[in-house]
Amino acid sequence: MTKKELAQALAGKTDLSASAAEDVVNAALDIISDSLAKGEDVKLAGFGNFETRERAARTGRNPQTGAEIQIAASTSVGFKAAAQLKRAVNG
């Protein structure tokens, strides 16, 4: 499902217009992104948790040449599905 399809589904389930639903989806995703960028966890009851995870610097290999390269430390986003979402997906 794309962001546009999500907005259309939201418009179909509510009395929002398609453009208003798209604005709501974009605003919600912006808020989630901003919170994660600040290092805050985002918890959506019944859906799951988004959290930032620190990845340490490490040595990797270029698969084409086999040469060692240094991979810098970074922050990534992780998602853990809630039990309710897992049950819905698994039937």
UniProtKB/TrEMBL annotation:
Gene Ontology cellular component annotations, sorted alphabetically: cytosol
CDD domains recorded: HU (cd13831)
Species name: Phycicoccus duodecadis
Keyword DNA-binding: yes
One term of GO molecular function: structural constituent of chromatin
Keywords in alphabetical order: DNA condensation, DNA-binding
Gene3D superfamilies: IHF-like DNA-binding proteins
Keyword field contains Acetylation: no
Protein name per Swiss-Prot or TrEMBL: DNA-binding protein HU-beta
Family: Belongs to the bacterial histone-like protein family.
InterPro entries listed in its UniProt record: Hist_DNA-bd, Histone-like_DNA-bd_CS, IHF-like_DNA-bd_dom_sf
Biological process according to GO: chromosome condensation
